[in-house]
Design goal:
With 253 residues, the protein is an alpha/beta fold. 17% of the residues lie in helices and 36% in strands. The strands form 3 sheets. The chain has a 7-stranded antiparallel sheet with strand order 4-3-7-1-2-6-5. The protein has a 7-stranded mixed sheet with strand order 11-10-9-8-12-13-16, with helices on both faces. The longest helix has 14 residues. It is globular and about 50 Å long.
Length: 253
C-alpha cells in the first residue's frame, strides 16, 4: 500500500453516466492484483473530505483504470477531470480474487456496476488459459455494462435486453454448461444479488467468491467502519482489510 500522485491519461464515457478513467500510476500498477481497490482523493479541497473507494478495473503497463458511475458529488468531480490532472491515490488495498486454484471454468456474475473489477480478472484468467463465461445483468438495458467482458450472456429485469429475469435465474438456465467441469464462480453486484448467488452456489456445490462493497473511511482497517458479519458466531470481517473479496461460505450477506 502506498500513496501515489497519479496523472490522468484519459477519461471516456462508456454508457449513460458510466465513465472509465485511466491514470498513470506505475507503482500501484506494479503491485495491484485483480479484485483490489484504491482510495482516491478526488479534489485538493476539503470537500469532499473523504477519499472514494474504486475497484481497479484494469492494468495496462504503468496505467490503472477505474470504472465509475457519476451518482454523487465526488464522482461528478472525478468525471470532470482532464488529461494531465493530478489525482492523489492510495492503494492497492484489500484482498483480491483467488484465481490460481484448481478449476476449469470461471463463471463471472455481475450486476450493474458490479462489472467494474472484472476486466482485470479476465485478463489474468486468459493468461492462465481458463475458460470464461460472463453473466451480466441489470434492471434494464441502460444498466448493462459489458466493458472488458467476454463470452457474454445478458439478463435484464424488464426484458429489454437478453434474458427476461435476473442473473441468478439466467445462471440456472445455463447450468448445462457447467456439468462435468470444475467451476469457480466470481460475483460482484448489489447485496441482494450476492446473497442469491451465494445460495445458488451452495445448493449446487459450486465454489464462489464475491466482491463486496461498503461505505468506508480509511480503506485499510484503522477506522473499523466497514464491518461485515462472518458465518462464525460473534465474528466480523472488515470489507477494506479482509475483503473486499470473500469466499461466499465465510460471510453473511
Amino acid at each position: 500500500m502506498l500513496i501515489e500522485n497519479a496523472k490522468v491519461v484519459s477519461l471516456k464515457k462508456i454508457t449513460g453516466k458510466i465513465f472509465l478513467i485511466k491514470v498513470l500510476s506505475p507503482q500501484i500498477a506494479s503491485l495491484a492484483k485483480p479484485g483490489q481497490f484504491c482510495n482516491i482523493k478526488v479534489t485538493d479541497n476539503l470537500l469532499p473530505l473523504l477519499r472514494r473507494p474504486f475497484s481497479i478495473c484494469n492494468i495496462n503497463g504503468d496505467s490503472v483504470s477505474f470504472l465509475f458511475d457519476t451518482h454523487g458529488e465526488g464522482t461528478k468531480l472525478l468525471a470532470g477531470k482532464k488529461k494531465g490532472d493530478a489525482l492523489d491515490i492510495l492503494g492497492p488495498l484489500g484482498n483480491g480474487f483467488n484465481y490460481e486454484s484448481d478449476f476449469d471454468l470461471a463463471v463471472i456474475v455481475a450486476g450493474g456496476m458490479g462489472s467494474a473489477p472484472f476486466p482485470f480478472l479476465i485478463d489474468a484468467l486468459k493468461k492462465r488459459r481458463k475458460n470464461i463465461i460472463c453473466i451480466i445483468g441489470g434492471r434494464n438495458e441502460k444498466d448493462i455494462i459489458t466493458y472488458g467482458m467476454k463470452n457474454i450472456f445478458l439478463s435484464t429485469d424488464d426484458g429489454s435486453n437478453g434474458y427476461n429475469g435476473n442473473v441468478i435465474q439466467l445462471a440456472a438456465k445455463l447450468k448445462d454448461k457447467f456439468v462435468g467441469k470444475k467451476v469457480q464462480f466470481f460475483g460482484c453486484g448489489p447485496n441482494a444479488m450476492l446473497k442469491a448467488l451465494k445460495e445458488f452456489c451452495a445448493v449446487n456445490n459450486f465454489n464462489c467468491q464475491v466482491s463486496t462493497e461498503s461505505a468506508m473511511a480509511c480503506g485499510f482497517g484503522i477506522c473499523q467502519g466497514c464491518p461485515i458479519p462472518a458465518v462464525e458466531e460473534d465474528k466480523y470481517f472488515l470489507v477494506c482489510k479482509d475483503g473486499p473479496v470473500f469466499n461466499s461460505r465465510d460471510i453473511i450477506l
